[in-house]
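Students often ask why we bother encoding 3D structure as a string. The short answer is that it lets us treat folding as translation between two languages. Here is a chain of 329 residues written in the first language.
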Amino acid sequence: MRRISARACWALVLLSFAPLSLAASSPCAAQTYPNRQIELVVPFVAGGTTDTVARLIAQRLTDSWSVPVIVSNRPGGGSTIGTSQVAKAAPDGHTLLVTTIAFAINASLQKQPYDAVNDFTAISELASIPLMLVVHPSLPVTNVKEFIEYSKAQPAGLDYASSGPGTSTHLAAEMFNAMTGSKLVHVPFKGNAEVLNALLGGHVKSHFALTASTLQHVRSGALRPLAVTTEKRLPDLPDVPTIAELGYPGYEISSWQGVFAPAGTPKEIIGRLNQEIVAMLKTPEVQARITREGAIPIGNSPEEFAARFRNEVEKWARVAKSAGLASTQ
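And here it is in the second language, the structure alphabet:
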């Protein structure tokens, strides 16, 4: 692309009756980007998989662009506090959001100070984290059909654990209820560690688990896998069927992580960020690091991720409404 001089850029701005609109669509901003510190806002506590991936991005951008890139953890409000900060930030590529599937789910579960679809611009999906339906070995079921029938036969239903309301482990079960007619009763915990303690102890009998956190217990026999929630079977669990292939087409959920910018960020800046992030995700060392976290590296285009995100918001809105969880505010 032909480079535009600084004088030409200023001339364009001065001649415009709508300078803010012009700046958002002009290549000028992209040619001077980045010109100061970049902040990656993670709306969760430090130490989790999302935080780890955000720090990988920060290191890549720092090395490539020679500007400081920091990760700011802004937990609270079901991830809305940090997300709101990005929604209000200047659309210049210097404040970005690194978040999870909770961003799409929360759009239906609670009133938010932003519009998840219209107030943000997708940059790239970073990683996907499969889930699987596991049960305690004391439960007298060995497959999904028996699991469904057993849940229906319980007068009070069959309990299932989640890592908290609105999480992927919660909505996976509610979608399962809606599609199979199962009678699963929600028992929320405050995180995956608490869920595993209760599940391994037999205090709750079932869980739609993040594969990464339970694979070792499945291999040891401490938990029994019934199905995975992905479209295709997982290489690490080739003998475990998908829920979709068992007669429930369309059932699919994988927790994911992605990066967003405020709406109105110039396309040229979005493109530069996408190029760097996708290149990072293709490196062997980053792929190995993400795989160790139990995730699958993705790296897609802004258009592909935007379409996926819109579909996710719509899907979880249907699930939330079916389960009586949708916000009425």
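Translate back mentally: Residues 10-25 have pLDDT under 50 and may be disordered. Keep this in mind for the problem set.
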